[in-house]
Amino acid sequence: MTTMTTRVRLLVFFVTAYALTWFGNLGNLIHPADWWPRPMFPLGPIIAAPLVIGFTEGRAGLKAWWVRICRVRAPAWLYVAAVGGTLALIALSVSLALFFGAKMPSAAQWASWPVIFASLPIGILAGPAPEEPAFRGFGQYELQQTMSAFAASLWIGLGVLVWHFPILVTGGIPWPIAIALPAVSVVYAWMYQVGQSVWPLVALHLTVNQVSGVYFGSMFTKHDDELYIGFFTLGLVAWALALRLRLGPGLGGQGTQRAEPMTIPVASG
């Protein structure tokens, strides 16, 4: 029986997630067609995670992961922080963007807020639902067993940043997101440490996507949107730094539970 270290296993997970997410771009180059999922197939991470877990840990590993990602119960204040804190940060960022020169949206644009809820189902399925159970429920959980939760969050944030590469380079999302993703990864790690559930993270992620991306993202020009997202990114960086300074590298958790090198038997047969 062969063994695989935790870090190698996570590298395999990310490479697999990238391949499953980006395959439509390569497929379209080989055989151009409208039905290829481009620029990204959002379900890549949630497919890659059980594939890697099942191969390396078998049914026991899959069951443990499933129990983790199905745990919805978490402190109520954590859900309030995920949604309310994010809305407050969005409101502050919009206000600063308008103060520093962004064009004031029209009354009709302000009145378009129902789009936040109209697009909610696709917003869940194409964003936080396939990402957080994989990136945090698997990646963050495993990596923080070999290093501090803070360090693990930065590595996971870097991996998630690379995952977004196709829409970053094509301008599908504003460039400050490249800084926001590692910063919010620290916030996600803190929430996961405190609540032991990925669902407050899903709530935060969904709030950002729907309110910041779908609603305000449609109001601003490209330049004004970058200004707004720039302020929002600064807020996330400040939030992450405050958590690190206040709680230390464990981000409110119990710290490393096992030492590296950690080897995982690769299931066979």
Describe this structure in words.
The protein is mostly helical. It has a domain at 73-255. Helix content is 70%, strand content 2%. The chain has 12 helices and 2 strands. The protein has a two-stranded antiparallel ribbon. The relative contact order is 0.17.
Question: What's the short story on this structure?
Answer:
This protein is mainly alpha-helical. It has helices at 6-30, 44-69, 76-99, 107-110, 115-118, 120-125, 128-143, 149-163, 165-169, 177-195, 199-215, 222-247; strands at 3-5, 263-265.
DSSP strand (E) fraction? under 5%
| Helix-strand string | EHHHHHHHHHHHHE
Shape: globular
What structural class do you assign from the helix and strand content? mainly alpha
**Order of the strands making up the biggest sheet:** 1-2
End-to-end C-alpha gap: 10 Å
Instruction: Report the C-alpha radius of gyration, rounded.
Output: 19 Å
Number of helices: 12
Q: Which stretches are low in confidence, meaning pLDDT under 50 for 5 or more residues running?
A: 255-269
Name the average pLDDT.
Answer: 92
Instruction: Tell me the total number of β-strands.
Output: 2
* Main sheet makeup: 2 strands, antiparallel
Q: Helicity range of the residues?
A: 55-70%
